[in-house]
Amino acid sequence: MSDNELGTFLRTWREAVTPAEAGLPAGPRRRTPGLRRAELATLAGVSVEYLTRLEQGRDRNPSAQVLGALADALNLSLTDRMLLRRVTKEADGGDPLVCAAAPPLSRAARPTVRAVLDRLEPAPALVVNWIGDVLAHTAGYERLAGPLGLLDDERPNLLRYLFTDERARSAYRDWDRVADDLVARLRHGVPLRDPYLAELADELAVTAGADFTDRFADLAATPRRTGSQHIEHPQAGSLRLLSETLALPDEGQHLVIHLPADDATATALDRLNGRRPGALRAVAAGETG
């Protein structure tokens, strides 16, 4: 096995991507069908000297933002982005240790919180921790989110699904708005030095690239008080939802409740839950303020 896996990965992909695939003119006298170092460096916004050091193994600790920019420039798939992140971690000696002083990340909802969820049926409601891991949810939420693929992972995460699962862009007609809100909540609701936030941000910087990093860098963005989503559901059709988020500060968790924003959505959710129309009532945006 090479002792410069990161450099080998970058060089192999650079030489495999044609100028046309990168949106560049082919130009005359090319000795290789791939990209020149200067071209990849320009596309990724780094210097040629720095890219050379990475390829030669003289620098093995690029930032997540740089990796994301290189992955964007090379048009890497999610699988290849994950491989890029893995070989970079291995080149740097493995994942950094989580700060011992950091409070443990909550991985379960308290029984009393689960009891609240039971009483919220059939409304789609869920409990998340501070980095967006889904800890518990109502059966109504499972019927809403399950067919979208959001709960497929063993440990579902709202941000990871939104930014790395291609089904998310089809499911959320207002994907940009939902992405803005989720990242703003992450950015403003968690201390920047939190190691769990740093680990997730580094992961998404690589796997999602500029779609995530541009939003994460925007300090001026603030989350909306009441969220809204327009979902294309494979079983229930077009759904317009409002959401309220209630803080559970002791555990660093939030209870998120989705509400139908119009009568058509209320009827569709009732049918999705196998209930007679009228169990859920539409809530106008003004009523939530």
Task: Tell me what you see in this structure.
The chain is of the alpha+beta class and 289 residues long. 44% of the residues lie in helices and 12% in strands. The protein has helices at 5-16, 37-44, 48-56, 64-73, 78-91, 111-120, 139-145, 158-164, 167-171, 175-189, 195-207, 210-216, 263-272, and strands at residues 125-129, 134-137, 227-233, 237-248, 253-260. It has a five-stranded antiparallel β-sheet with strand order 2-1-5-4-3, sandwiched between helices. Strand 4 (237-248) and strand 5 form a beta hairpin. Mean pLDDT is 87; it is low at 95-102.
Walk me through the topology:
Blueprint: H1 5-16, H2 37-44, H3 48-56, H4 64-73, H5 78-91, H6 111-120, E1 125-129, E2 134-137, H7 139-145, H8 158-164, H9 167-171, H10 175-189, H11 195-207, H12 210-216, E3 227-233, E4 237-248, E5 253-260, H13 263-272
Antiparallel strand pairs: 1-2, 1-5, 3-4, 4-5
Helix pairs in contact: 1-3, 1-5, 2-3, 2-4, 4-5, 4-11, 8-10
